[in-house]
């Protein structure tokens, strides 16, 4: 199971203190407002989304766009859809090979016994698909391989900082895009952005690095990278208190910069048994892109099952 950048981390000392390490807010484009309206309406009605009203300095809003935040963290959206699906979800199982066995797919992971399935949907980054071993590696056609190889991603780090209850971070904004620092691109006072400030829960802050910094330091240890980010953060926000806990996240495959050409939201690798690829590699790296790909995958499945 891959949740990707819809990732919310909790403080190890205070479970009520959370920070979004990936997507910071959800943008609904006017082009997709009608087609995807039912998804937004449902999430708004359930309180899983609400309009972004906190000030984000440097944010560019295009005409007709609407921005939303997830009060319970962006991972709450994924949890909602998983619960609705009734799926038996297993985390921490990295797939390493996929083989054909008696007209079914045998999926093997780094740990545990192989399991067999009638159909498989891949949503991992395209480079991970190309790294899979087993029969699947030989079943991908040259044309499909070129499509997967054409997908490119940006890389960056995110650093979450958790503070003790009562800590004050005195800035006039909830988020800020930074243009003058080689390391830091975005900062958010996460609880302020989501309008969930409480005297009983300390504030949380997230820092996203620039892509050049991420690329340069991608193979460095997260401990070393965290120290570099904290040093730069001191120059941007001098005098920040010492955090009670931190979480440094490496995003090797952050956002899609070039999606697979001519994939139409999905890429069917095999028909019987069915094997299809979906996700932002075949659309774009935002919530609308996720919905588009999911709908395309469902339509492909309906044609072959």
From TrEMBL:
Keyword field: FAD, Flavoprotein
Keyword Transferase among UniProt keywords: no
Annotated ranges, domain Amine oxidase: 67-297
Gene3D superfamilies per the UniProt record, alphabetical: 3.90.660.10, FAD/NAD(P)-binding domain
Annotated InterPro entries: Amino_oxidase (IPR002937), FAD/NAD-bd_sf (IPR036188), RNLS (IPR040174)
PANTHER family according to UniProt: RENALASE
Protein name: Renalase isoform X3
Organism: Vulpes vulpes
Taxonomic path: Eukaryota, Metazoa, Chordata, Craniata, Vertebrata
């Amino acid at each position: 199971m891959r949740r990707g950048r819809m990732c919310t981390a909790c403080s190890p000392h205070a479970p009520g203190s959370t920070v979004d390490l990936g997507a910071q807010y959800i943008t609904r484009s006017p082009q997709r407002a009608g087609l995807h309206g039912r998804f937004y309406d449902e999430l708004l009605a359930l309180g899983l989304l609400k309009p972004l009203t906190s000030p984000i300095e440097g944010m560019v809003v295009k005409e007709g766009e609407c921005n939303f935040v997830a009060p319970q963290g962006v991972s709450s959206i994924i949890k909602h859809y998983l619960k609705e699906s009734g799926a038996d979800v297993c985390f921490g199982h990295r797939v390493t090979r996929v083989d054909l066995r008696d007209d079914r797919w045998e999926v093997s992971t780094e740990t545990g016994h192989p399991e067999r399935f009638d159909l498989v949907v891949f949503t991992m980054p395209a480079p991970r698909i190309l790294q899979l071993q087993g029969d699947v590696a030989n079943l991908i056609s040259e044309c499909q391989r070129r499509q997967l190889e054409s997908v490119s991603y940006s890389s960056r780090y995110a650093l979450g900082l958790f503070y003790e209850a009562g800590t004050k971070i005195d800035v006039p904004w909830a988020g800020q895009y930074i243009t003058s620092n080689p390391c830091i691109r975005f900062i958010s006072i996460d609880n302020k952005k989501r309008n969930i400030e409480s005297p009983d829960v300390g504030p949380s802050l997230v820092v996203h690095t620039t892509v050049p910094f991420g690329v340069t330091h991608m193979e460095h240890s997260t401990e070393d990278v965290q120290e570099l980010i904290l040093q730069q953060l001191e120059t941007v926000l001098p005098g920040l208190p010492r955090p009670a806990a931190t979480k440094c996240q490496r995003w090797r495959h952050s956002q899609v910069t070039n999606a697979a050409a001519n994939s139409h939201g999905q890429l069917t690798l095999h028909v019987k048994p069915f094997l299809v690829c979906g996700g932002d590699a075949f659309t774009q790296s935002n919530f609308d892109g996720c919905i588009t790909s999911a709908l395309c995958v469902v339509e492909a499945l309906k044609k072959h099952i």
